[in-house]
Give the backbone structure.
Amino acid sequence: MTSTAEKPSFKRAYQVNYSAVIERRKKQEAHKKEYSNGTYSVIMPKNADEIVEEGRYLRHCVGTAGYIEAMAANRCTILFLRDNKKINTPLITIEERDGAIRQCYGARDTYNTNEQIRDFIMEYASLHDLKVVYSPFNHLYPWSMPL
């Protein structure tokens, strides 16, 4: 595995190129996308650096150039699900695309198994008129499967 320290110029290039766009998206969309129920929150990243840090902390691919570019190009929205008691600690990363929650992963691409978090995600999806189409929910919430 190649460490990010070995390729700082590549990492910095895409982070710098897309950070301003992601910052603008947060300013324009946060009031529609972000949500809290008092226990958990869904928040938008402030910039590309936060997306990279999310991927690094959770050890999954969201911090790669492809997701950052897709977020900057408005092809998807990357969202962070947080426990309000540890609001700055990554917990779950959500990919919203085409009116649906397409991916929802914790550390090392694991699916969430906590029912409270699942219910919160479903609550968020319902309030934001989103389908939930990734596999862990399909057996629990069959109405959320795409037709």
